[in-house]
Automatic annotation (TrEMBL):
Start and end residues of each stretch annotated as Disordered: 15-67
Biased composition (Acidic residues): 21-32
Comp. bias intervals (Polar residues): 45-66
Name of this protein: Phosducin-like protein
Length: 284
């Protein structure tokens, strides 16, 4: 209720606050201020957490100053470095693959084409099959070569034998025929040299025939011998007459061999494999 004083002063009752109400209002204001301060603190704390450095990247600084924090930061740093090195190594490998040249032979391409067109034939042409086929072919070639082995100086007694020795022989065989006369110097020596060479070159056919049997002229029998005629595939490829002028009257098998090699009539034995020459290599 309003008092007499209130009526005289004209004060309104709703503007009047007792001391107890003032205390209550003060406490409420204080609580509001506290709440505001707490909200500010929470917001600042949240912003500090949001601005905290991420562990996914290393910026070179550490927010942890304790021993455990330092160790943790160091471990994370090493982990990031290892990941970077792994990525760089992977990129290098990819770059090397791009820059590397892929070499393929014609044989590889033919095998792929054969696998597409004829798979059964491709299965047959394996390494084992090729090795077996190679061995079989080597046996056949060696068997054929064995038939063409001579190893001695063949004496031709007639002119027909002379013709047959050339025409009926295998085309791969080199035929060396010595035309001689017993009374001419150097002919006997040449026969001895060819006998030795026939053993060293078993796949070359060495023959001898008298000039009189071959039906040569008297002048040739006196001035043209000793003479060597070389044939292959039925054709004459070498014609060497009066060899004493080049070799002298006294010569050896090595001299005749060198002469024939220099003129391309014989293959150098040092360049021929032992499996072809038929001579076993001496063990050192």
């Amino acid at each position: 209720m309003s008092t007499l004083e209130d009526k005289i002063l004209g004060e309104k009752t709703h503007y009047y606050c007792s001391s107890s109400s003032e205390d209550e209002n003060d406490s409420e204001d204080f609580d509001k201020e506290v709440d505001k301060e707490e909200d500010k603190y929470i917001r600042s704390d949240a912003s500090s957490y949001s601005n905290a450095p991420s562990y996914s990247e290393w910026d070179g600084s550490s927010s942890n100053t304790g021993p455990k924090g330092v160790l943790k930061d160091w471990q994370r740093f090493k982990q990031i470095e290892t990941e970077k090195q792994a990525i760089l190594a992977k990129e290098r490998i990819e770059l090397i693959k791009k820059l590397s040249l892929s070499c393929r032979t014609d044989l590889d391409e033919e095998k792929e084409k054969l696998e597409e067109t004829d798979p059964e034939l491709a299965d047959l042409l394996t390494d084992e099959f090729l090795i077996t086929y190679q061995k079989q072919r080597m046996k056949e070639m060696l068997a054929k070569a064995e038939k063409l082995r001579f190893g001695q100086l063949i004496n031709l007694e007639t002119a027909d034998q002379f013709v047959e020795a050339i025409d009926n022989e295998d085309k791969s065989v080199t035929i060396i025929i010595h035309i001689y006369e017993d009374k001419v110097i150097g002919c006997k020596t040449m026969n001895g040299c060819l006998t030795a060479l026939a053993e060293d070159y078993p796949f070359v056919k060495f023959c001898k025939i008298s000039g009189s049997v071959a039906g040569l002229s008297k002048h040739f029998k006196q001035k043209g011998v000793p003479a060597l005629l070389v044939y292959k595939q039925g054709q004459i490829i070498g014609n060497f007459v009066q060899l004493t002028e080049q070799l002298g009257s006294d010569f050896y098998a090595s001299d005749v061999e060198s002469f024939l090699i220099e003129n391309g009539m014989l293959a150098d034995r040092s360049c021929v494999p032992s499996i072809i020459s038929g001579k076993k290599q001496e063990s050192c």
